[in-house]
Protein 1
Amino acid sequence: MSTESSGVIEDAGPAGRTESAVSFDDVAVRTEQGLPECVSPALYNADLAPTKRAGRRWSAYNIFTLWANDVHSLGNYAFAIGLFALGLGGWQILLALGLGGLFLFLLLNLSGFMGEKTGVPFPVMSRISFGIRGAQIPALIRGAVAIAWFGIQTFLASVVLRILIVALIPSAQNLDANSFLGLSTLGWISFVSLWVIQLVIVSYGMEMIRRYEAFAGPVILITMIALAVWMLSQADWTIAWTTPDSLTGGEMWAKIVGGASLWVAIYGTFVLNFCDFTRNAKSKGSIVRGNFFGIPLNMLLFGGIVITLAGAQFRIDGRVIESPADIVQAVPNTFLLVLACLALLILTVAVNMMANFVAPIYALSNLFPKTLNFQRAALVSAVIGLVILPWNLYNSPAVINYFLGGLGALLGPLFGIVMADYWLVRRSRVNVPELFTEDPDGAYHYRGGVNPRAVIALIPTAAFALVLAFVPAFEVVSEYSWFIGAAVGAIVYLLVADRKGPFADVSGEAIAVASTH
């Protein structure tokens, strides 16, 4: 039976439950776009829809190459070399990275399995715990952090491109002497060139990103190993395993554990939205194998390269470098300098797309699913990343520490809430089709589309995380703020969560799309 009133159609199910409540406009949009009858156009499009199991292409190798690129990012090298400067020796750095790698391996498997089972990206996954409307909160927080870092990482890559251009065309140095909105002419040429390259790659969708990551992974590993061997040869095949200011005793162990915790915090953003990629994974086994070789083992290789680069440079002149870019700049052979710069550019683009471009694309598509598909959301994200003039953000400690640092501090509690709801409350039982319905009786409608229990859990734990991040009195535990925030978020949510259920486990295959969209 159906009734019509004020432009709304309602269909009653056999038990009297309202199966759908949609406007004539929604019906028209659904018909025009060929959407399944049970979904709302305000919640569903081809990019947000679950992926079909048949035809998923992300293998263990593809998962591995994500980490082969991301682990060897310039930012990570700067962090790990910083441990050397802070007084940790070779084996202590390896231990810190190894501990961090084991923690990440476990966390990423938990997050990755969610994507493999449901086939949906992070903004849709957030609807499970926060509601079909409340999911905008975690999605936009994650997207805002990512879009700022997309611009910043593009700027950092453009610095490498400037070095490359001057090495090939020395007269281009003349274009680096002026300034417009904080960048020289050469700086603008470099930044916009990389901005366009990334936009073109992403415009072809997740399948092109998969192919690019698969190409970039071996290039980065070979380049960084070659750079380490070259530095070792420059230091007469010996390195300094420690500095004169090396730590010992309890202070050393505290720094090792703190370094491992900070290493996990660096990946706090990626742990949250790893399902954006694993929704295309062939199996749980692919995720486990890819994570194992890409995280613990790859991080030990990364640690060996860090120790070699930093220790060799310290052996040569007693100087602690800040980044591999410092070494690349000193390469005396122009041909080798060009190859090294190209490899660093390939690396930075790979890291930027996986860590900072995909997340805001899905967040914006989730916000405006009727108008923004993957390509349009990519363009909007890229434009925002340009107009914020990210080099000025990077050069402002206040912006980095308080704005981006503040948003980053919220990711721990968000992770705790989402994971506790999925694994502990629901025991991974999800009704995937109902993630895309505005039916007031839907499993994830809650109150007006928002789960007040998740919001109640988030507000105090977010405030607590911000206090840990910014109040000097808590500086002693600041290294562990992500873990503390995640744990407190999970505990508070478990205290207020509705455990009654019933929690139905329904596949999304009926409304799924091909994973190569």
Protein 2
Amino acid sequence: MSKKQITGQAMGHNGIINYEVDVQDNKIEDLKILKHSETSGIFNQVIDKLKQNIITEQSFNVDTISGATVMTQALLKSADKAVTDAGVDVQPVPKKKAPKTQNLRTDVLIIGGGEAGLVAGCRALTMGQKVILVEKNGYLGGATILNGSNVVGTGSDVAAQIFDNNHDTPEMLAQDVARESLETNYPALTDLMVHNIGPAIDFISKFADLHYQKAQTQTPEHSINRQIELPSASSYEFIQKVSKAFAAAGGQIMLDTRVEKLMLDNDKKLRGVIAAQKDQTVNIKARSVVLAAGGHGANQKMRGTESEGIDYYGPMTSTGDAYQFNGDLDLQTHDLGWYKLYPHGVEVEPGVAKLTTYASKQATDMGAIYVNSKGDRIVNESNVYTTFRNAILKQADKVAYLVMDERTWKKVYDLLILHDFTPEEIKSFFENKGKRPVFVKGSLESAAEQAGIVVDELVQTVKNYQGYVQDGHDHDFGRDPKYLHQFEGETFYIIEQRDRFATTLGGYSVDADNLQLVTTKNAPVANYFGAGEIIGGANGHDSMPSMMNTWGISSGYVAGAAASENAQRQATAGDDEANIVAIVGTNASKSYNRKLLYAMKELFETQVNFEICEIKDLPLFNEDDMDREPASVKALAAKIEAADGVVFGVPEYDHSIPAALKSAIEWLSCAEHPFKDKPVMIVGTSLGIQGTVRAQMNLRQILDSPGVDAKVMPGNEFMLPQAGNKFDENDHLNDDGSEHFLKQCFGHFLEGLELASKKTVTN
């Protein structure tokens, strides 16, 4: 037995990935990651899926993971070369041919696997609904995965225990939101958020076994200590535990599934979505849909001039896809130019930043100061984040510098490592002198020179500040004395600070009572609800720290309940979608007419329920057996009776319909009478040029006979000639003209069903 451990390196998105491939007897047994610099919350999900695909298929020629294409492609290419160079000959496992179209049905469909979507899905599950969640990326988390887990617990039992009943109220939280956003918030949505975050935190904590604790940082924007976080301080813990609980409760998660189009009926009612996977189309019908697809920060075309010069640190997949697939609905939007700006970021590549919020806050708590390139202080370093943000924006280069001593740097370093930086990455920042981001150390004069700051001015600024500390009074900005601390030692550290954003604050407009999406005419869109970043307004033009998570969790909680109640109402009233039974008119195992009906199912499944039924299991009709009606006949008759309409796919045998079909209709017009007044459409295809014309005429005569009494659709006969050339390898129609005519005929058939239904109601 031959066993090898093959090591290699790949260049990921953030740096080198060291890996090991374990091979035994030319078979891949494991892929181990030894070291990496990627975002852990994303990488941990992606690598597990990638490894599973590699081992299952015994090949590195597997699909990359959506949302992490650069990293997974580099790893696959490098590992493939390393294994080949090691002389290992791995034999791939033949791939199973996947169906080109998958049709699914659910009560509630969630679009988006971030915080809001997961909470909405969990809430719907607990209300008794079947739930499917689709996510376009190959991992869960959305923009949430890049942030901390900090949130407010106002009104929750969880917070009451943590803060020992600190008397926080929804009204106090709403006042803080309005004050900090300069009254730009939408009061009705703010009210929904502050009154639901407490129940939402209690709900999701119990559902997913989350153990919140007091957040290590209580920011001054909040008038009372109310911020909580998970023990890891990472949102990955939230996503991991909540998604696991969602799946355990029966929720279905579909990754790498990108919504491309909505299923709408003639009245613009939402019926579901059409989504794309790498190897197939997925049609998902749903009674209710929750849109939690995230924002549009990574879409440069959707961003206005107000975002120029501000770094982006959110997921590069936040491209605002929903604004494309919702195009047919005339949805109302608001404030698409609002962004949640933070002043704590370092530019790790042009236009892209990483957050340093926790580290920067720790630095200023210990006495660090903010200066500009001239060496002057620019802000009260203990003020609220919005003041920092505006101060940095006022600088000509939109950059500030955080100046600290070595004592402070040690604490800052620990927090950078905890929040998405690696030791190697930080080391490289210091080594790459003269390049962004600015990370320098040395004497004050040396550090200033390396950072490009006016040396003499910075020296004077620090001297003045040391005097303010000694006096116990900040003569420049009135900084709180408890944050005035002397710089210690002769070594200084200077790191850049840039405004950056990950999330957008505007988006689609909703009914504030239940988060139902509305059109530009303020009309609610049937069966469609929103949650999370894509539904903006609750926090106004600028949200306080912890409030993006607060909105995501509370809005998901409300939207999940509203979608569930809507789905339950539909289930109770009975779905108004047409039920079509399609009958294969032959007992032959191979039939082009069967192919035609399945092609119709794929074409029209988004509009109706299209069930294909066979007659091959029905016995030959015999009048002597009338008193012993076969169960198979009863079952088919019941389906036809319950259907809104019937489609026959009829072959032509000797200028007539097949004997098996004639026998089936005899059963269904003698023992049963399900066709009476039933709307019927006839289609057919043949190898010749006449396309079952005689068989269709024959079938019309039979269906019009006493005892059958069907209402056969007049005109619009669909006859497909030369069947051998009209289907591709996946049994789809490959003739555009024929497909167009088939859609036209079926459309007229559905119109006939609606007219018949209206006449019935009138009578």
Protein 3
Amino acid sequence: MDVWSSLMDGFATALTPMNFLYAVIGVILGTAVGVLPGLGPAMTVALLLPVTYALEPTSAFIMFAGIYYGGMYGGSTTSILLNTPGESSSVVTAIEGNKMAKAGRAAQALATAAIGSFVAGTIGTALLAVCAPIVVKFAVSLGAPSYFAIMVLALLAVTAVLGSSRLRGFASLGLGLAIGLVGMDSVTGQRRLTFGQPLLADGLDIVVVAVAIFAVGEALWVAAHLRRTPLHAIPVGQPWMGKSDWKRSWKPWLRGTAFGFPFGALPAGGAEIPTFLSYVTEKRLSKHPEEFGKGAIEGVAGPEAANNAAAAGTLTPMLALGLPTNATAAVMLAAFTSYGIQPGPQLFTSEGPLVWALIASLFIGNLLLLIINLPLAPMWAKLLQLPRPYLYAGILFFATLGAYSVNLQAFDLVILLVLGALGFMMRRFGLPVLPLILGVILGPRIEGQLRKTLQLSAGDPAGLFGEPIAVVIYVIIALILLWPFAYKLIRRNRPAAAPAAGASALATEPDDTVHSNHDAVYSDHKERP
């Protein structure tokens, strides 16, 4: 009952005329930017983050919720019409969605993606409202050792599964932790990595870091592989679904939601695994398996629902524990930090009205997406015809303007340029950007919990194992780190049951999958011979 009354209070706040207007603006802005080629939800949120900076916190986060879900919706439009997913979680949607579009069924593909996103987003947000307070009650009972262990688990789990190698993932994490050290030590007052620059004494603004790494780095990378010829999007009529389309879509929507939410809430779960599982499941359960690979509507409905349910799932650990599990949630955490609000177990107590207004606005934004964007689908298709040199020049302009508006200091533009170049180089050499952002955000918090734990144990490292939950988590961490070595050892000692070439192919399959996803994401931006 307490959850219900709090949610109703959140709706009362979110439905005031001004806040409702911000929700509408957020949905339209998020979709408009998210639908552009090569821009995933994380980059959309990072680019528009400074837009909300001058607003009152509740209004800002209501607008932010619209941008978040709008960016997710826009990504499916690009995947279906251009076969250019903005991130790897949209690759599976593009497989069948673009085939449907080429077969003259773009309207049906967009409709099932939009309605599936609405269904999954609504159910996922409802689960968020129910689960987040439960997670908070559990988190409040944890001490510093357990909380430190949980944050270390989140960092290592996300880092270990991203990129084409663990080495690249941990290199990116190291860069993020180093950037997080810049500034003044909160205990001793000692300046760290400031290089004699007084403006670095307060550390790097997380908004500037997020915009630089995601927006500037991505724009430079795509511009470096830009074709001068305009994109040719597939024409779209008014999205609609026939009776047979509804019949074939509603079960995949529900199954995709069931896959997406739990994976989104887990550290390193993300949306890639549930979208793939949803696609495989629908292919096996479909009465029309011969259509898969040629434009099966189930192959769009299920993965798109899984993708959006995972997006709602990522907000559960982000709000309740302050732990982002994907890039978009990391940028949202940066938004909280920029307002001086610390997500975690105390958030529902200290900022209860804001949190419940945010959750209520997710329901509102989800409904607005369906009402506004189905009629506007032909307009979004025309937006894809923008000349991309103008597009990415505009992105760099607004990113620069947004970063400058945070503190109104020209020094931030230097930081933006340096970190933007770093983001470009990371993409060039295959380093995932999410571990860097997590290192910047969580690094100082992990340091604080570590110091608190050691102070409680009078400097004895055994204090890190002072709680049973902490011990269990360290065992999980050890399994995550040691499993690849144990797996290789088991395979080496097991008698070969297949030719060496087959074993070699299996051994390299994870890396190939990652590279193929990467190629799929950026294939539309590469130079053609």
